[in-house]
# Entry
Amino acid sequence: MSAISLSPKPESATAPGPTKPALRHRLAERGVDRTLLLILPGVIAMAALFCYPFIYGLGVSLQPAKGGVLGAYKSFFTDSFSEGTIWKTFSLAIPSSIINVGLSVPISYRMRGEFRGKRLLLTLLVVPITLGTVLTAEGILEYFGPVGWFNLTLQKLGLVSAGHPLTLINDYWGVLFSLIISGFPFAFLLTHSYLSGIHPALEKAAATLGAGWWQRFRFVTFPLLLPGLLTTFSLTFVLGFSVFPSAMMVGDPDGKTHVISIETYEQALQNFNYPQGCADAMIMTAMMLAVIGLVMGVRSLFYAGSAGGGKG
Amino acid sequence: MTETIQSPANPTPIAGKKFSELRLHGISRAYGTHTALHPFDLTISGGEFIALLGPSGCGKTTALNSIAGLLPLTAGSIELDGKRIDTLPPEKRGFGMVFQNYALFPHLSVRRNVAFGLRMRKLPKAEVEQRVNTVLELVRLTEHAHKLPGQLSGGQQQRVAIARAIVLEPPLVLMDEPLSNLDAALRLDMRAEIRRIHQEYGLTTLYVTHDQEEALSLADRLVVLNLGRVAQIGTPAELYEHPCSAYVAAFMGYRNILSLTAEAVDGATATVVGDEVRLVGTLAGAEDGASGVAAGSRVQVAVRPEDFKLAGDGATAAFEAVAEVVEYHGREFQVDALTRSGNRVHVRTPERVAPGDQLTLTVDPKRALVFAEAGEAT
# Structure
């Protein structure tokens, strides 16, 4: 790379004496790293594939057939059925994220060390990732259906009377199960890797200082894990909030699981009311960003640095 | 979760928890078929400073972790004043431990790191505060009390780790190579600091290191380990002056270990020859009559670099060598020389030597230790 001189007096570049430091160093002093220009193609792709459609959609949402600029938004919030999708979506996404994160903490905590069969257990826990939503949904329909194994077992145990099976599919519960089955492997893998980033010597040190297992978890491992758990929560929340296929297949898409993405889909592609569909999508995005912003705000209150044991 | 450690009626149960002796009975540790630590016995009396010395992989950290309770023993028992403690989990043993990488809690301030053990014991706030302040003053970190460990230098982190272990005034402090991550100058400072804290608190300390100088300068007694076995136990002076094997001698500054043959044995001395070397040395362990060296047996001869003397012409030369590398060390020269048969010897001499010089070396018979070849010894 040839040196580019930005000197106002070009003759000084060749003159002996104190030479100016290279451009790269001068830029570095101002916090500019030209190597970062290499991310430019990525930024352009992002802008073309994500930002442009987003802004286009935002524009469309502000041009409804009637009701002025914010007409589509007004009609969303004045129609109790469409407004209700917000609550329905939250009531699926929040519990499923809490359950996924909550389950992955004790399981990954128990799976820290090396033990026989660890790889097999890891594989079993992670395999649901490879199942498509449709396959999971079919399994849920069969298993939790009125004459599925689950209800038959309950009947055999006398917990439910014959002819009155528990309604689990085409209902809220089916979608929740589906979100747990597909979301847990993500939550578990993330938690597992966050946990392995915490130096094992920290718990040993806590033990020699008189902390029992619960105190070690409560005062050392958990606080160090918490930022990771909040990130995990955000990711599984996004997965749950944008639930669509399972809400259609194992849920009650016209009633209890009429989530916001179904509402958006119906407005845009069944009613062909693009401005309304776009407005719904914008509301959905705003909701997700609000929750993620809140979680990240909470996260910034905690220590989120290295979880090593110090030097070495 | 109930705390059974002590009742609130007794607010300072751990202060001055001195013991008279800690007995290790044939403790050993095996990983599958590999024995990391062969059974060994050691009795530590209260207030003693013991160093476990050995190269990496000799089992010294295994020994320390077993005593701390972080590793279960394969065999043997540990008794503190007659009470068996090896069945207790680490949190019930109440030993302080300083880890090689310090293992400070990165999310807690220096003050809260130090207070951690006291808080686990649910001591009253005022007492925790007061004891933490005392210890922070002792390690000179009062003005850094509010910082996170990540904001401290290596030496400061080291002092936090020590403060955290000693604030509980534990009966035994275990230190796992605490100085190995520090630079040379800081290491000397911290060594003095550890010595000072030990003297001030009188805390019994078990200190693991691979650095003989550290061990000699700090410890009341040394335990030298070799491949998981105890090679020798003794005071620094005993080990320095009377190492029981060539292995221990090598650790105690005898950098020259020559493999030779005993030609004649005469009481406490032996004439040893081989590789164009001939010298007279003292049989190690001759006072006990158990040197195990007879005429004709293979021996190892240990000589410190500073005990080789450059002889003038006509003196009874032990052997000749050619200086190869000469380092200037201020008051003296460190010379690496090659004997005629190609063996390398290390010599320290105040005389000026240049590379390529022909050296005639002698050694005082008292300063050359003769050991039976390893494996032949009883």
About this structure: Residues 47-299 of chain A form a domain with the MetI-like fold fold (CATH 1.10.3720.10). The first helix of chain A runs from residue 11 to 14.
